[in-house]
Amino acid sequence: MFLSTLFLGLVLGGTYALLALGLSLQYGIARIMNLAYGEFMLLACFAVTMMFTSWGLGPLWGLLVVVPLGYALGWIIHTVMMRPLIKRSGGGGRLEVDTILATFGLLFVVQGLMLVTFGSDFTSYSYLDRGIGILGTTIAANRLIAFVVSLVIGFGLYAVLIRTRWGRALRAVALAPGSAYLVGIDVNKLGRQGFALGGALAAAGGALVSMFQTFSATDGVVFTMKALIVVIMGGVGNILGALIAGLLLGLAETFVAAFIDPGLTMAATYTMFLAVLLWRPTGLFGKAGG
After folding, report:
1. 3-class DSSP state for residue 137?
2. 27 closest CA partner among 278, 285, 228
3. What is the pLDDT of residue 241?
4. 174-183, long-range: CB within 8 Å, 24+ apart, which pairs?
């Protein structure tokens, strides 16, 4: 029972971590709190489902389709919708308020389009749902694949941010956007790239979640809230922190559901969130006083 719960918690946590990475980049680098983040994940869920059920294209192949589309959509939204708000804000605190209001409206626009196109019913498909035995316990193959792909994407992104010049420039914008200009970094261009990369990660998360979870057109806010909780727990803009916080949250929810009461999983989630917010507002892995 313990091993089964542990593995299920890690699988769920890996998914949460991937969900949070895109939002962490969008807020940490582009300074945009995207409240429509979950809706763009759902667009990927529906797109991959349609490709699988209509064309027989597996979700891992569908992942390769929706990720560049997610990047392109993020780029377009930043250019058309966010860039004017950034110019108007003049680099002040008004940007966060304006983008929150703008993406809140965008949330309902995208949700409405999905309801008209796909309806309000719950959607799912069957893909590799057979069990695989690991250390005496059984894990569904689709969940295991989603977990492995999530970790590969997450740690691959972390390696890019740490080891490449482009990644170090993105981190510089996240840590000190005002000073990044002084060393010749195009902050606006990298902010746009960070937001677009967040869109690509949202699409990747949606493709993987669709492999094992039932979803509907109104579930976006749930995904957004889970991603936001992980981002704050791990530290805004901290990629490694988001990965670890996602795993911790998945483990906490799974163990509470298995050994206490399934009805208390959301209570446990928000208790952890409030505890971090009150006693470690910079996140578990953020710098104190930053």
Report:
1. strand
2. 228
3. 84
4. 174/28, 174/29, 174/237, 175/237, 177/31, 178/91
φ, ψ for residue 285, nearest 5 deg:
-120, 15
- For 214-225, what is each residue's pLDDT tens digit? 999 999 998 998
- Here the tokens at position 83 are 């860039």
pTM (2 d.p.): 0.89
- Cα 58–chain centre separation: 22
Tally of CB atoms within 10 A around 256 = 21
Q: 201 or 276: which carries more pLDDT confidence?
A: 201
Per DSSP, what are the bridge partners of residue 137? Answer: 134
CATH assignment of 2-279, given 3.20.20, 3.40.50, 1.10.3470, 1.10.287?
1.10.3470
Contact between 215 and 47 under an 8 Å Cβ cutoff? The reply is no
